[in-house]
């Protein structure tokens, strides 16, 4: 189409195909009583003319804003996990001809957002903005359960406790007898699941727990402080000290720390230099994978939460709720996996 030519509208397509505007519209939307031959003919004309449906007009006809809201914690700007999660939501929304409005906990509103539904990424208990969004009555899907009195209309969650047990089993097989954990507080369902999984594993394996709690948006300094506290509590063996010629002696409380699992995203890469400087023999793993863990030296064993796929799954579930395909209360398990790398290489 030349720059001075009028835009191709549904009326243009209808005239060219020799049908009414209503028939052309029904044929392209797959609705109405239109024969397959007419549908095919109209679709062929629309493709030849380069007709693009007016998404805004279509949403208006459906009494829809054509937009969904997305809320994530404010660590977005320094978290590759949440960046990938956002891209997953945005790409899924685009497939449904929807836009995405980003909502953060720093935004205080006097009215509900003008959206058709909401996706909440890791909603934190006690967050007033999340509480407000949950009370709008808008269809809502959360990634992990909301640790509050309300619950989203749909939930996408992962088996974090079971996956952490798999990681801890791997550390034990690699020679570690007393793994420690750095984890955020229970205001996050994800962190609470990780913490619970660690305690359950320790109880099942007669291991004295070693845990340090940090804030959900912990800085590097906070994570390193927690790691130093753990090293001081159960001093690990130095690199020049033999650790493989005999089993650890003493009670589980007396055993040295020999593996460290960092739950917060990016925490393991903050701790790795500290362990090197201390010259200690400690296996290192992360509960969140990312570019930092993959590119570390040595690469760090991590749980791949597949954030982009998680975001897409949340958005798809929201659109199914909006269209009535699934009932309120639908939950889906998002698969995650363990990526074993050199940071937990078995001791020889």
Q: How many distinct helices? A: 12
Uncertain parts: 239-248
CATH superfamily of the largest domain: Response regulator
How many structural domains in the coordinates? 3
Task: Summarize the topology.
Layout: H1 10-17, H2 21-29, H3 36-49, H4 55-61, E1 67-71, H5 80-95, E2 99-103, E3 118-121, H6 128-134, E4 140-143, E5 154-157, H7 160-173, E6 179-184, H8 189-204, E7 211-214, H9 220-233, E8 259-262, H10 267-278, E9 283-286, H11 291-295, E10 301-304, H12 307-323, E11 330-333, E12 337-339
Parallel strand pairs: 1-2, 1-3, 3-4, 4-5, 5-11, 6-7, 6-8, 8-9, 9-10
Antiparallel strand pairs: 10-12
Features:
348 residues, 434 Repressor (Amino-terminal Domain), Rossmann fold, 3 domains, six-stranded parallel sheet, six-stranded mixed sheet, 15% strand
Q: Briefly, what is this?
A:
By secondary structure, the protein is an alpha/beta fold. It is 40% helix and 15% strand.
Fold and architecture overview:
There is one protein chain. With 348 residues, this protein is α/β, with parallel strands linked by helices. The protein folds into three domains: 10-53, Orthogonal Bundle (434 Repressor (Amino-terminal Domain)), CATH 1.10.260; 67-158 and 308-333, Response regulator (Rossmann fold, 3-Layer(aba) Sandwich); 160-304, Rossmann fold (3-Layer(aba) Sandwich), CATH 3.40.50.2300. The chain is built from twelve helices and twelve strands. It has helices spanning 10-17, 21-29, 36-49, 55-61, 80-95, 128-134, 160-173, 189-204, 220-233, 267-278, 291-295, 307-323; strands at residues 67-71, 99-103, 118-121, 140-143, 154-157, 179-184, 211-214, 259-262, 283-286, 301-304, 330-333, 337-339. It has a six-stranded parallel beta sheet with strand order 2-1-3-4-5-11, sandwiched between helices. The protein has a six-stranded mixed beta sheet with strand order 7-6-8-9-10-12, sandwiched between helices. The protein is elongated, with a radius of gyration of 26 Å.
